[in-house]
Amino acid sequence: MELRTVLVVGTGLIGTSTALALRRHGVRVLLADRDAGAVRLARELGAGEEWTPEAPPEEGVDLAVIAVPPAFVASELLELQRHDAARCYTDVASVKAEPIHRARQLGCDLASYVASHPLAGRERSGPGAAREDLFLGRPWALCPTEEAGPEARAAVLRLVELCGANPVEVDAAEHDRAVAVVSHAPHVTASAVAARLADTTDVALGLAGQGVRDVTRIAGSDPGLWLGILSGNAAPVAEVLEAVARDLNEAAGALRALAGGDGAAMQDITQLLKRGVVGHDRIPGKHGGPASAYAVVQVVIGDRPGQLARLFQVCDEVGVNVEDVRLEHAPGLPLGIAELSVQPDAAVSLVEALRDRGWQLP
Ligand SMILES: NC(=O)C1=CN([C@@H]2O[C@H](COP(=O)(O)OP(=O)(O)OC[C@H]3O[C@@H](n4cnc5c(N)ncnc54)[C@H](O)[C@@H]3O)[C@@H](O)[C@H]2O)C=CC1
Ligand SMILES: O=C(O)C(=O)Cc1ccc(O)cc1
């Protein structure tokens, strides 16, 4: 099914990112938000034109994408359907069972609605944080109810395709249990670790490395939005957090025993660390495929303009594809380390090429 005109309601991070991706494919995008400033900024970023409900487009709207906090999805759907705003509807909320249940309670038309959720985002909110490539290669869950009609299914599938994401059809309750493990409980855990830093000493913060930055990145997200996400998926998230808390309690108990001279407690800690490695290795890699063991080439780079561009130029010259890149800054020094993830069989030639050209590899 072709999407000619799409209405995006909620022009924050996800709504504006969706709109930008659609604009790139020439789709006409209409923008709405209860915050006029958010629509204005999204429009200035090239995400589309302002929606004027009194003057709907002649061709009609093929799909309305509801990109507002989970608690407002069902009421927004009802309101849009009452005004016959579009032929088909979807939402992008991070929880699925509760908004669908509420939509059913409110008497929304479920034939023209397929709930969905892109598994991609950022720790920043609002249209200013939007990126047209946010969804590239990412999973995008579709949770059609049994009432969902073929036209709505096709429209939402096309949306996912145009955003460059991978559609994954899953039952709403199963979706919510899954994201409790892979997104919602990790978020709370990140917040708990980050909360330890709120009143720690400047000396400790001065010693912070990449590990703590990685583990706490998502803790910088909007608390209001996350309160809505967590309360919409409360029981499944609580269950995962209880399991995490059991592991943490056992680790603390074992470390107390170790501190008291009980060397046997090392076993318990090793077991948890090993289970952690197993879990980490199961996270799928780029494009949702199995995690690939890339080789990591570390290069010292000066904190000057153009250094990364020069580094990529060398990769290009020797025909090495950079699968991922990470920058680690040396606190207080005008240099850092770039970590280039490459296919293992490309690492040796890249290392040689970099050394030949005078780059410093630690
Ligand atoms: N932040 C993330 O990384 C991800 C968020 N999501 C989901 O996407 C949805 C939007 O989240 P973000 O874009 O991150 O939030 P955001 O805070 O960047 O944008 C939400 C926008 O919705 C508007 N809004 C709120 N209620 C409204 C209403 N009743 N009618 C019209 N506009 C309304 C707000 O003014 C705001 O501009 C949420 O349901 C969230 O669970 C999904 C995937 C990732
Ligand atoms: O920032 C990240 O890496 C995320 O994973 C963000 C995210 C937040 C909420 C979602 O429902 C999906 C993804």
UniProtKB/TrEMBL annotation:
GO terms for molecular function: NAD+ binding; prephenate dehydrogenase (NAD+) activity; prephenate dehydrogenase (NADP+) activity. It catalyses: prephenate + NAD(+) = 3-(4-hydroxyphenyl)pyruvate + CO2 + NADH. SUPFAM superfamilies: 6-phosphogluconate dehydrogenase C-terminal domain-like, ACT-like, NAD(P)-binding Rossmann-fold domains. Its EC number is 1.3.1.12. Keywords: Amino-acid biosynthesis, Aromatic amino acid biosynthesis, NAD, Oxidoreductase, Tyrosine biosynthesis. Coiled coil: none annotated. The keyword rRNA-binding does not apply. Pathway: Amino-acid biosynthesis; L-tyrosine biosynthesis; (4-hydroxyphenyl)pyruvate from prephenate (NAD(+) route): step 1/1. It is an enzyme of class 1 (oxidoreductase). One of its GO terms (biological process) is tyrosine biosynthetic process. It comes from the Bacteria. Residues 296-362 form the ACT domain. InterPro entries: 6-PGluconate_DH-like_C_sf, ACT-like_dom_sf, ACT_dom, NAD(P)-bd_dom_sf, PDH_C, PDH_N, Preph/Arog_dehydrog, Prephen_DH. Residues 4-288 form the Prephenate/arogenate dehydrogenase domain. The keyword Oxidoreductase applies. Belongs to the prephenate/arogenate dehydrogenase family. This is Prephenate dehydrogenase.
